[in-house]
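anyone seen this seq b4? input:
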Amino acid sequence: MNKTNCILVFLLIISVVLSIFTGSVNLGDINNMQAFTIMLDVRLPRALMAVLTGAALAMSGAVFQIILKNPMADSFTLGMANGAVLGAAVTVVTVIPAAFAPVLSIVLGLASLLAVLLIARKLDLTYRPETLIITGILLGALLSGVLYIIILLFPEDTANIARYMFGSLGGADFSRISVLLILTSAAFIILERCGRVLDLLKLGDIRAHALGVNVSVIRPALLITASVPPLVAISYTGIIALVGIIIPQIILYVKPMAFRPLLKRSVLIGGLYVLIVDTLGRTLIAPLQIPTGVMVMLSAVPLFIFLLYKRILVNAR
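predicted toks r here
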């Protein structure tokens, strides 16, 4: 592990500790048992869920952008996040057990990705970045419309569904953390071992194939591998957008690098970013809490515009 990653790990640990001791309740005003309960059962799970969610989103974004050759690709701009939220919302308004929410989110999220790729392929055989993103955003809007209809049909469940629409880490618990940790770790190991393959895919399909990569098999396999952790995270937290775009692109803007170091740094910075944003969201106007998805949008959109501006300038030159 290089020096920068060691520093990021240290900052991540410090941030988790500070997050546990920071909140709307002053731990000094309550007895030790209550303080211990709040820290262990409420704040620690939320902090760990923030780290894992940010790591999963940033990791998937780094992979999508290489495989689809699109620097603006992530689970949100490809419509996958809306599909995942719709899957989770279905478990809220039906008799399907909530434990199946991650499964439905994965199925509908992957179906959304497949639909975007097929539609974009019909519109533009070259998969131009703007075609892919516009298609993903339009499909996401369509799925959001379906979600609004569900809210109208089941008004008594509006509060639960709204949590998915705005993105919140308030429902974190250790069972969900365990599931997400296992899936994110497994995906990370697989993607890290495929680092050389992903570097070859940057060269183009023809050159990658000439160098021994079975593109038709490896591309969908890596897409599915990178998709599962963020879809499960979204099924628990709701939509937390743009993390998968801004983290890898900012890293590459500062210092271009191969996939393996990019993957590791994206995981660390993604987890740190979501943790810091979530901690600020629940403390800035305490006791009111700003949803994590809202805080991420407020901070990510200016960065997104900056990256878009730089990309336009580079293309213009």
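DSSP finds 13 helices and no strands in the chain. The mean pLDDT is 87. kinda curious what u guys think
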